[in-house]
Specification:
D-Maltodextrin-Binding Protein, domain 2; eight-stranded mixed sheet; 15 strands; alpha+beta; five-stranded mixed sheet; disordered N terminus; Fructose-1,6-Bisphosphatase, Chain A, domain 1; binds 6-O-phosphono-alpha-D-fructofuranose
Length: 342
């Protein structure tokens, strides 16, 4: 079944663009609320432009001098890849100087970057998630979220950026894979665009994406079972029962790629807490919350194993959290297994 043919048995996976070629710029403008100033649409345009520039480098893979390590360890204690630094610089550059973005929070920077004291928006992002896969040509992605500042008459403070996912006004990702896609939501459904390199435009591929009625995959790194909290074994045992959904296991090691496949075909992605790392590996603000925002908009949900990821108020911009995002019933089951006997 083509991923563009809605699953007749389940919720609408989303039909193809109704007619003709629709660029992301046109879609944003045509679908923004009547009362909109257009500023948020322009911020998403800026992110799309950053995605085009980053894609121009990731496409060249081994042909670019940017592969390999930057020789720097980032605030996460992870060795930065040259492409991480490049992608972060591109995002910062594209989001600066237009009077739209006040603060940028990046996985690659220890502190928020204050761009403009009076601009209305805050952008949080992981400029190149999955970068450990760059050299092996596995799909990687940019994950982003956008907050609107309540008061732009004063310089930005922590209250402008240290916020729960419920406050997001937009979120999405750019997937650098066999094709380059931008998937986003502003709270009116999830919409996907594919970069046509020939014309340099993201073109609407399908709108109002929903998780299919029946899930097909679960994305867990089963090699980590010995390190996981006990409830995860209960979930894996549940998956293997004859009376539960017959899922295939797919784990790419790149959250954006795993999430995207599960959005199309149904499933759940998880990065659990571990015995010596109870908060897991993924970060709440610019990985877990944006993916949970998209999941909810697509009929699914995101949890840390006991509560909605979108309800968690961060204490630190780089705060880690266990992440389970995707099909609602699978996330609910994960919570039941993790909280059973808790
Ligand atoms: P592991 C990539 O580094 C990342 O942040 C996510 O994209 C991915 O899901 C996860 O880490 C993979 O981590 O420990 O399985 O290699």
């Amino acid at each position: 079944m083509s991923t563009f043919d809605p699953d007749p048995g389940g919720p609408d996976v989303g039909g193809r663009a109704a007619e003709g070629i629709v660029t992301i710029e046109r879609f944003l403008t045509d679908n923004q609320p009547e009362t909109a100033t257009g500023e948020l649409s322009r911020v998403l345009d800026d992110i799309a432009m950053a995605g085009k520039v980053i894609a121009s480098r990731t496409r060249r893979g081994g042909l670019t001098e940017l592969l390999g390590k930057a020789g720097v360890v980032n605030v996460q204690g992870e060795e930065q890849k040259l492409m991480d630094v490049y992608a972060d610089d591109v995002m910062t550059s594209m989001l600066s100087g237009h009077g739209r973005v006040s603060v940028i929070v990046s996985e690659e920077r220890p502190e928020p970057v204050i761009i403009d004291d009076s601009a209305p928006y805050v952008v949080v992002h992981d400029p190149l998630d999955g970068s450990s896969n760059i050299d092996s040509n596995v799909s990687i992605g940019t994950i982003f979220g956008v907050f609107r500042r309540e008061d732009t008459t004063k310089p930005p403070t922590e209250a402008d950026w240290l916020r729960p996912g419920r406050d997001l006004v937009a979120a999405g990702y750019i997937l650098y894979g066999t094709s380059t896609m931008m998937v986003y939501s502003t709270g009116q459904g999830v919409h996907a665009f594919t970069l046509d390199h020939a014309v340099g435009e993201f073109l609407l591929t399908w709108s109002n994406c929903h998780f299919p009625a029946e899930p097909a995959y679960y994305s867990l790194n089963l090699a980590s079972i010995p390190q996981w909290e006990a409830g995860m074994s209960r979930f894996v045992d549940w998956l293997n029962r004859p009376d539960t959904p017959n899922l295939s296991q797919r784990y790419i090691g790149s959250a954006v790629a795993d999430f995207h496949r599960n959005l199309l075909h149904g499933g759940v992605f998880g990065y659990p807490g571990e015995v010596d790392r109870p908060q897991g590996k993924l970060r709440l603000m610019y990985e877990g919350a944006p993916l949970a925002y998209l999941a909810e908009q697509a009929g699914g949900r995101g949890s840390d194993g006991s509560r909605d990821l979108l309800d968690i108020s961060p204490n630190d911009i780089h705060q880690r959290t266990p992440v389970f995002v995707g099909d609602t019933r699978l996330v609910d089951q994960l919570e039941a297994c993790l909280t059973e006997g808790a």
